């Protein structure tokens, strides 16, 4: 795994570490492990991707590293990383090494990761007098062993130490994006949105789902996206779109199909998450258009609620009300009191998922959705948070008591939304989603194809 040698302004990460140190208090310490290189089989490794919380605080992209941060007015940051090794660097690329990491990333101290326990014990002021230690309790049991070993014989001291979940503490900090976060996320969304727009000129009946997925991968990588996408793309044709996490197959896209594509690139660790649905031949059927316009109206209603002071539940409820009313209007749901229908989840067979999730360094980003211990109070949206807004309608092929003409239609529309002081900003707005715009782009595509010779369609 070759180190990324282009260093951004490390002061961004220093500032984040200082903020975290303030939350730790003068007697708090947090251990934040980076990701390890993982073998896929034999001597082949999976593509390396740094652990998100560690990346957020350090910008350091080498595997097998550990950050230790002591809070207080004069916080201390210590990085443990792989030592310089000329032989290994011939195979896997240059390493910063402890000295290079200290100079380039602004840590107070850096050490090789070959004897972490001993070095922590030698840093007498690091754990001396601390009363709270944070570490990722649910992910790293091995780290607790290292911490206990570093504490050594201080049994009485250990009894007075409170061990808390570092993931939750760091997740709260990551929930509200700073300017650097927003810049990276906006660029990730732009790359993805442009790919979604371009794909309307590429898709055609006869392609397979896998071929279309490859077109996205090509565009993401060509535009500077990371080797690992934000998530495995979902490319689903026809009734496959009714499977929420469909895995692309060799199924051919047919002329009358809707195609649902849920695909987002990752840019320097930051995720985008966009879904669009469009007709393979460039023209919605009346039934497809009716369902699509309900979903689009639901998304627009949800967007109006995505603003400071509102709850995520309000975003979802706005979408659910529009979908419930639309399904009743089409006869797909029995007519009844709309608010009662949504309150009792009558729409769930057609709209089985939530409307939003956090977005950031992870596609389902860090941060709690409920803020009270009793689990009743949903979090209020605040400036700097980023969410998805993604309503959908999915009519399974064998749904009972539904006319055949509606069956097998699956539609989802998803955008990335930054909560701003005034309301919100749609980071993925460049990806077309209005019916007229989609059909116009695809009509122009079809015209060019006719002038250039007809494409052969496979079954």
Low-confidence stretches at least 5 residues in length (pLDDT < 50)?
A: 1-7, 455-459
Overall 3D form:
globular
Figure out the total of helices.
Answer: 15
Spatial strand order of the main sheet: 6-5-4-1-7-8
Helix content: 25-40%
The main sheet comes to: 6 strands, mixed
Gist of the model:
This protein has 459 residues and is an alpha+beta fold.
Structure overview:
There is one protein chain. With 459 residues, the chain is α+β, with helices and mostly antiparallel strands. The N terminus and C terminus are likely disordered. Helix 12 packs antiparallel against helix 13. Helix content is 37%, strand content 16%.
Secondary structure elements and pairings:
Blueprint: H1 11-24, E1 28-33, E2 39-41, E3 44-45, H2 52-58, E4 66-70, E5 76-81, H3 86-92, H4 97-105, E6 109-112, H5 116-122, H6 124-127, E7 132-135, H7 141-151, H8 155-159, E8 162-165, H9 166-175, H10 179-199, H11 209-222, E9 234-237, E10 258-263, E11 266-267, E12 270-271, E13 274-279, H12 286-305, H13 312-329, H14 338-343, E14 386-389, E15 392-394, E16 410-412, E17 415-419, E18 424-426, H15 435-452
Parallel strand pairs: 1-7, 5-6, 7-8
Antiparallel strand pairs: 1-4, 2-3, 4-5, 9-10, 10-13, 11-12, 14-17, 15-16, 17-18
Fill in the keyword field for this structure.
459 residues, alpha+beta, six-stranded mixed β-sheet, three-stranded antiparallel β-sheet, 15 helices, 37% helix, globular, disordered N terminus
């Amino acid at each position: 795994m070759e180190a990324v040698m282009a260093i951004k302004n490390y002061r961004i990460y220093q500032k984040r570490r200082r903020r975290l140190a303030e939350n730790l208090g003068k007697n708090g310490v947090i251990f934040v492990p980076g990701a390890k290189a993982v073998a896929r089989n034999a001597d082949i490794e999976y593509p390396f991707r740094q652990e998100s919380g560690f990346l957020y605080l350090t910008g350091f992209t080498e595997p097998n590293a550990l950050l230790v941060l002591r809070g207080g007015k004069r916080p201390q940051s210590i990085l443990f990383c792989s030592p310089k090794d000329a032989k290994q660097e011939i195979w896997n690329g240059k390493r910063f090494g402890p000295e290079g990491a200290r100079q380039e990333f602004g840590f107070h101290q850096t050490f090789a990761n070959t004897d972490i326990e001993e070095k922590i014990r030698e840093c007498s002021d690091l754990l001396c007098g601390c009363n709270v230690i944070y570490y990722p309790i649910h992910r790293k049991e091995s780290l607790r062993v290292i911490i206990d070993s570093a504490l050594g014989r201080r049994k009485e001291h250990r009894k007075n130490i409170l061990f808390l979940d570092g993931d939750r503490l760091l997740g709260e900090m990551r929930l509200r994006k700073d300017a650097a976060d927003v810049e990276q996320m906006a660029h990730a969304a732009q790359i993805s949105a442009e790919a979604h727009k371009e794909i309307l000129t590429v898709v055609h009946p006869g392609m397979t789902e896998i071929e279309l997925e490859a077109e996205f991968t090509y565009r993401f990588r060509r535009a500077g996206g990371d080797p690992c996408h934000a998530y495995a793309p979902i490319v689903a044709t026809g009734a496959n779109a009714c499977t929420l996490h469909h895995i692309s197959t060799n199924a051919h896209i047919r002329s009358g199909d809707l195609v649902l594509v849920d695909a987002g690139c990752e840019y320097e660790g930051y995720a985008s998450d966009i879904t669009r649905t469009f007709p393979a031949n460039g023209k919605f059927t009346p039934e497809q258009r009716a369902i699509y316009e309900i979903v689009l109206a639901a998304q627009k209603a949800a967007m109006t609620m995505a603003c400071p002071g509102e709850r995520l539940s309000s975003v979802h409820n706005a979408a659910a009300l529009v979908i419930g009313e639309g399904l009743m209007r089409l006869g797909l749901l029995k007519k009844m009191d709309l608010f009662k229908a949504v309150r009792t989840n009558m729409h769930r067979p057609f709209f089985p998922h939530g409307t939003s999730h956090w977005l950031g360094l992870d596609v389902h980003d860090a941060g709690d959705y409920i803020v009270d211990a009793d689990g009743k109070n949903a979090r209020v949206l605040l400036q700097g948070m980023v969410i998805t807004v993604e309503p959908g309608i999915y009519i399974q092929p064998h749904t009972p008591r539904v006319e055949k003409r509606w069956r097998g239609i699956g539609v989802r529309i998803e955008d990335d939304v930054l909560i701003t002081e005034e309301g919100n900003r749609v980071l993925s707005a460049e990806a077309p989603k209005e019916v007229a715009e989609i059909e116009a782009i695809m009509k122009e595509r079809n015209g060019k194809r006719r002038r250039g010779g007809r494409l052969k369609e496979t079954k």
